[in-house]
Each structure stands twice: as structure tokens, then as C-alpha cells.
Amino acid sequence: MFYLICYDITEDNRRNRVAKVLETYGMRVQKSVFEVVLNETEYHQLQTRLLKLLNKRQDQLRFYPLSPHNRDRIVILGKQPEYQVDALTFIV
After folding, report:
1. Which of 30, 36, 70, 83 could bridge to 26 as Cys pair (CB 3.0-4.6 Å)?
2. Residues 37 and 85 sit within 8 Å (Cβ to Cβ)
3. Would you list the DSSP string of 5-56?
């Protein structure tokens, strides 16, 4: 499943740690927004990893699942990404 993940994290160190974890799963498309493709196991593993980094009273992390139909309807205005994240993309 394709997810758009975005966050609002108040502290720099926590924000940097969350970004580093997300970079291992997908592509940063804006400063606090990532596109990732996850199977169900990866989805739960990622949430578990990220929950350990968050301050639940101050921070917020959102996972937006996008179906293939809705993904095809994404509109990007301005600078276009150099590549797209999909089920065949490998992040190393």
C-alpha cells in the first residue's frame, strides 16, 4: 500500500530521528512529508519504531493511505520529483 506520511514534531533531535527512519522506508517529498510503499508487516513495524521516538503530548505523525486509483490523481504543481516511489522502488 502507498502511504503519504507527514509529521509535526516540535523538537529538532526527535524530528531528525523520525526523518532518518522514514528515509529508510521511502522518499522525502517535502520537509515533513514522505511517500512510502509498505506491506502490512512493514506498516506495523514502522509505526512501532516511530512511536518510540515521539512525544505523544507534543508531536503528531499522520499516515494517509492512497489507493492506486487516487494515486493516479495526484497533482504536483511546481518542481517535479526526479523519481517516484512505487512497489518496485528500492531504498538503499
Report:
1. 36
2. yes
3. EEEE-SSHHHHHHHHHHHHTTEEEEETTEEEEE--HHHHHHHHHHHHTT--T
Q: What is the dihedral of CA 66, 2, 86, 71, to 10 degrees?
A: 0
Of 69, 79, 66, 75, give the one whose Cα is nearest residue 37: 66
Residues 6+ apart with CB under 8 A from 66: 2, 3, 4, 74
Does the predicted TM-score (pTM) go above 0.85? no
Cβ distance 22 to 34 under 8 Å? Answer: yes
pLDDT confidence of residue 92: 43
Do strands 2-8 and 33-37 pair parallel, antiparallel, or not at all (unpaired)? Answer: antiparallel
pLDDT digits (tens, 9 = 90+) for 52-75: 999 999 999 999 998 877 777 777
Cell digits of residue 59 = 508531536
Q: C-alpha cell of 60?
A: 503528531
Q: What is the DSSP letter of 41?
A: H
